[in-house]
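Re-run with default settings, no changes from the original entry. Doing this only to confirm the output is reproducible before filing.
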Amino acid sequence: MGILLQNGTIVNAEGQQRADVLIEGEIVSQIAAAIDPAGHEVVDCTGKLLLPGGIDVHTHLDLAFGGTYSNDDFNTGHRAAGFGGTTTHIDFVIQPKGGSLADGLKIWREKAKPAQIDYAFHMAVTDLRDDVMAEIPSLVQEGITSLKLFMAYKNVFQVDDMTLFKAMRVAAEHGMIVMVHAENGDVEATLTPALLAAGQTDPVYHASSRPPEIEGEATNRAVVMSGLTGCSLYVVHMTCEFAVEALRRGRALRYPVMGESCVQYFHLTVADHLAQPDFHGAKFVCSPPIRSTHDQAVLWEAVRDGTLQVVSTDHCDFWFEGGVGPVQEWAAAHNGGNWHAFEAQNPTYRRPGKELGKGNFARIPNGLPAIEDRLMVMWHTGVNSGKLSPERFVALNCTNPAKIFGMYPKKGGITVGGDADILVWDAARKHTISASTHHMHVDYNLFEGMEVQGVPVQVYLRGTKIVDGDRWLGRNGSGQYVPRQPHAPVL
């Protein structure tokens, strides 16, 4: 007995078709105009769209950063993602300082044990010694085909140009992709102390410390190195015209370069959000910073014309009103590795959050909550406005991520033989986004009060329904690790 999704309209990146979809086991076994329902569980999808499950290739769950930990983990973060229609994500393993890549992978495999949706890993390299460089090829056997290097966060994660260039050469040899956080960390490290010394400490000055010019300069540097090495380059969380133009130049030269932006950069601005008084601007602190309405228009054009290939989230959420419990108790729980259990046993407690940066914007934990809202917000503001076709929406949020990161055709489309990761999408249904109703483990929402039209009403993960309206049907441990293939295409 299978599950028959009947009378829906399939939307893939290549086009739409009115068809029935038969799920048997974990895969799509048949797509046809009319499938005999005998012996199958029938789900009437009349008037609904059938979309591939969303793939978010940029998340940071349970991440140590800025003196605390991001709130969502592979339990709460997966539940929130599922409610928003994301069925697969790729999280960043962080190489521990002084440790090996294998050390980082061991930590993240442990973190992922409660998984409720499917997941994969990128490897963020923070200490690229010769022995670590020699370790890179072994990642391919682990199904990890992407390295992330930081051109920002001086004295924390930042690598120099020689290191980046060498890493690109090794990655190219093994069919891997290099991802970069493209901001000039040396310039930021000069601007930030000068701003603080001048008394410019509020959250809005975070944007002044990381102006768009240093994002464009770093993007151009990485693009040039890609051209020299032949290494596939993927620039994460692009925000501004300077960066987009650098990528566009590289693509015109037929360099193997690609880029993503994130949902927040299409909708938030310095003036309306980061400059909010009474420290509320801290809610919107991320790196690179949110920008201007002009840059938003540039991003919309870039996702339409193919300069940018993916929309992700960079989901990394922190309490706005954190630190309710004593910091000493939190530190003791953290040192014992049981901070999640500690919070569960102490419901009035919250780990430190954005308040760590009161009086010093540089100490605000960088990161935003978006994993649940990405698809609904991009559908409403992209498809409903006419900026994106439904097919382009699917390409940006589902298919291109799967292709670029070596998961297609298992993931990223509704195809015979592919995983039955399917959203029953109601394009007419409205929903008001709010922290009071979202499932992310955080006390604010970037899009508070936004009414969107177009939501997932049922979500299937490999043929198992995990969301049915407001009901969560997923379970811990049901999410699977997705090993990825090298030599993925450059789109």
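The chain has 15 helices and 19 strands. The longest helix spans residues 212-229.
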